[in-house]
Structure formats: structure tokens, C-alpha cells
Structures
1.
Amino acid sequence: MPETDTLARSLHDVGLAAWFGGSLMGAVGLNGAAAQVDDSKQRARVANAGWAHWTPINLAAIGAHVLGGALIITANKGRIAGQQGVASWTVAKLGVTVAALAATGYARVLGQKMEQFGDVPVEGGTEPLPETPDEVKAAQRQLKLLQWTIPALTGTALVMSARMGEQQRPKEVSGGILGRLLPRS
């Protein structure tokens, strides 16, 4: 076992950063840029093409994050079991990550559904026009919510990672181990 987990932490952190940043840029930049296209029937195409180009990179980022997280958990199984608070943070962050995975996967399913509708008039990537078909409007409503849910969840995971990094400070480790060994009064 190596003395450091630089590769695992790098995969975990860079993957999560790309997932967060890409989703936020897509919501703000890509969907916003699609709304600037003059032909309302081309706006969805532009947004869909951008998201389709991002998908393989996002998949690689998510894979790196998950692999890095699994390696970190394996390397820290002793701390997870022995240091008070580490297991609960690990479980909570895993829950947030699973929720982000589910939201990302569902957003991709909706994006593929949008691609199948072809060139329909829309205001933007997640904004319908009155003449937008009802099925497209429904998908856009869901995507509008998901475009903010994904960066909120991945941003939460980033903050949780920062807290979990603090748990590795010597004072936190010793306090957490003592907290686990000494009964509460």
C-alpha cells in the first residue's frame, strides 16, 4: 500500500471538479448561448449538440471521480471504522454522489429524448415557446430543474470533500478516535 493516495485523490477531485464545472457551464453558458440562435427551430439542436459533445468527457470525469472515491475508501477503511464521524460523512457523501449520478443519468435520458424531436421551436435549451410541442415542453421543464440540481449536488459533494479532508488533521483524528473509545456522558 502506498504511503500517499495522490493518484486516488487526483482522480476523485479532478473528476468531481469537471463534473461540477461542466454541468454549471452547460446550464449557464451552453443553454444560454443556444437561446441566442436566431432560428428558434435550431436552438434545441445547438443545445443538444453541445451536451452530446460533453457527454463522453463528463462520463470520463464521473468515472474518474467514482474510481478515485473507491480507492480512497479502501485506503481509509481503518479511519472510517475507527474515527468518530468519518463513517457518517462517508455515507452522506455517497448518498449525495448517488443522487448526482441519478440526476445526471436522467438528464442524459431527457437530452436524448429532446434529440429525437428534431428541429422544434424553443426559446432555449430549457425554455419552451408557446408553439413548442407539449412533449418537448415537459422534457424542458424537467431539464430546467436538473440543470441546477446537478451542480448543486456536485457542489455539495465538493464541500463535503473539503470537510472530510479536515477530518484527516491530527487533532481531528485523535479526537475522533477518542470520541469512539470513550463513552458519552
2.
Amino acid sequence: MGLLILLAMIGVPIIEIAVFIKVGGWIGLAPTIVTVVLTALVGTALLRQQGFATLMRVRESLAAGRLPMAEMFDGLCLLVAGALLLTPGFVTDAVGFLLFVPPVRAAVRRWLTAYLLSSGRVHVRAEGPMAGGDPSRPAGGPPVIEGEYEELDDNERRPSGKGGDNPWRPGDR
């Protein structure tokens, strides 16, 4: 993973410089700079609009008692998209704009979920009223402890331990 990040940190600027040179040769220096600034401004406006819409969907999910996992992933994608659009470059802008498209985010979410679940590195455990637990138990109620027990007669042999024949009786210790 560290090698992949190192390659990205070296490769992305090299690719961006090469694309800047090509685009600058085609359209000129001033239009290239205006285009980069314009993509940052458009990206900021899109981020604001879609960010507020995502926040509203998070609130609706919470009000309905559902975990807003898809909405949270969308918010993360929008954060990455905003960072990519504020980074000068055409390649990062293209990836950033792609992350603003809801079907693209959904496809990335499905791919990432399948990858993480198949890798075996992720274990999901949820508790509480919104995690699909016992709906009859109110939120904030006492904890439920499940277990097994067996009733024994006084004549049956019990496990031996310190302080007498029955280690389960507090008075015998």
C-alpha cells in the first residue's frame, strides 16, 4: 500500500505536467490558466450544492432510524472530489468531476464494498436500535445479556472449587 501511495505521489504530478504542456500547446497559456481556475470555481459550487443535498439525506435517514452508510460514503466521495478539483490539473479535475456523478459514486461504493468484504480485512458489527437489533427494546434501555443455564438439584454434583463444594455460592468462599 505504501508503494502505491508513493507511485501516486510521483506519478500524478508527472502526468499533470505532461497534460498541462499538451493543453497549453493546443489552446495557449492564458486559456489554460483560466480553465484551471474555472474548474476550481465550478467544482466548489458543485461541492456546496451536492454537499448540502447529501447532508439532508443523512438527516432523513437518521430520522427514519436507518444508518446513513451510503450517504456517508457519498459525503466522503464529495470531499475527495472537492480536494481533487482544488488541486491544479486536468486529470485530477476529471476524476473529481466524475465523483460528482451519483451513478459513478454508486459503482465505486459497490466495488469497494465487494473488495473489502472479499479481502477478509473488514468485520462489521453493529449494536443499538438503528443496527437492526431488537426493535421492542427502547434505545438507551438496559443491556440484554444472553446466556444458557441449567438447573441442578441440591443432590447433583456441582463443579468443585475453592471454599467448599459449590463455588457459585458466595457464602461458601
3.
Amino acid sequence: MSVYVDPLTDCLKSKIWPYDMSCHMFADTEEELHVMAAKIGLKREWFQSKGRLKHYDLTVRKRLLAVKNGCIELTRREAVEMWKEIWPR
């Protein structure tokens, strides 16, 4: 069981997301995801549970911290394939 991050991508800033770049952090299980999120200082209320991809959005700094704490870095293609396996239609 593992926790993963996809590559950083440009994103639009807004009142609730004032950052230029972000990525997704997701896991084989929600429990693992929430444990890692707590470890790197994310609030549970930031969990994105709508849609197929259950995830947290990460800033550049939080992504670095996630990788330092054991998250596996994936390419965009690897991430999409993983999402299909974790949350099939």
C-alpha cells in the first residue's frame, strides 16, 4: 500500500487557492491518504472526495514534504493509469 503524487501543473489562482502550481496526492486507500495528509500538516477538511479521484491538492512545498515523507512520485501517465486501477468506473 502506498501514497502517490503526480507532477506539479500550472493552475489558476483564486480566493481559496492562491497558488501558481499544484498537484494531487492520492493513495491505495483513503486511510493511508489521511495518515499521510496529517503527517505533512494538511487539514482533513481539504480532502477532495467528490468524483472518482479521492485526493488532496498540494502546493509545491507540501509536495516536497510529501515526497520526503515517502510519497511515490508518478508521471502524469502513470498517475492516470493508477487512478483507473484504484477507482474503476
